[in-house]
């Protein structure tokens, strides 16, 4: 659907995290996001994205790309056109999300219906334990032991076994998945996989650097592997082959819900399991990912839980279960 836009607003927002969050390649204290408002007639659509520095994206880059689109908006733009004029990344994600929102308001159709999704179900998200010393990680796991699914950040190999064992002991009833964020070598993966399997780990995300994926050819570690940094858009699927059983789709990698839905459906058609992930941000950024989560076996949409303050809520979290909140406006007529 071509949408005429009368006004575009874009800004950077700096959202404090409740505590620093570490993964294998660094520590974050804030979620620095871009927010977009698109107005057409009496309607306004909103979107949020977090440019991912790991892929060369940034707030200034996203704002520059958004500004470059401004001259095209008055004549009308479609989400499909957006895929052609902007690369995957934060700018396209924020604009795409806002276009979904304003289309829902202009047409009187919920975004889920526009996406061709049936009646939505609540979904269960992982609860992520960041990269901490084993004793500290165990304290978090003990506090969150009633969570049905815990995601463990690994990737500092010298302590990874102790970290994983401590978390399993502290949360014996939780299902576990782990994410190395490209932090291991093949030898380290082969060493820790049997240990992880014995501890009940059911999925390993991105064990090696994406550039080293070829080393996974013919490798079976007894636990399904999930491509994260190795999978961005539909074009990534041709490179994955049989190295991975799952793909982790993030809107900031795919450049928005439009491409993410197409990627999820194509991945499923090719026999991959699908996971939806997220970067740090508020529920406005997670709202379109909740729609994608309807097509996924695993959902990692816990980012808003780790913010220091909560804003207006698009999603309601009940423990690890989430669904639309009563105050939700995104994607709603």
Structure description:
With 333 residues, the chain is of the alpha/beta class. It has two domains: 7-109, Enolase-like, domain 1 (2-Layer Sandwich); 123-324, Enolase-like C-terminal domain (TIM Barrel), CATH 3.20.20. It has eleven helices and 14 strands. It has helices at 59-73, 79-85, 90-107, 111-114, 134-143, 157-170, 186-198, 237-240, 251-254, 257-269, 283-293; strands at 7-23, 26-40, 43-49, 123-124, 127-129, 149-153, 175-179, 201-205, 225-227, 246-249, 273-276, 298-299, 315-318, 321-324. It has an eight-stranded parallel sheet with strand order 5-6-7-8-9-10-11-12. Helix 1 crosses helix 3, helix 5 packs parallel to helix 6 and helix 6 packs parallel to helix 7. The radius of gyration is 20 Å and the shape is globular. The mean pLDDT is 96.
Q: Please tell me how large the radius of gyration is.
A: 20 Å
Q: What's the rounded overall pLDDT mean?
A: 96
Helix content: 25-40%
User: From the 3D coordinates, which CATH architecture of the largest domain would you assign?
Assistant: Alpha-Beta Barrel
Give, in order, the helices and strands: EEEHHHHEEHEHEHEEHEHHEHEEE
Termini gap: 16 Å
Strand-residue proportion: 15-25%
Number of helices: 11
Provide tags for this entry.
333 residues, alpha/beta, TIM Barrel, 8-stranded parallel sheet, 11 helices
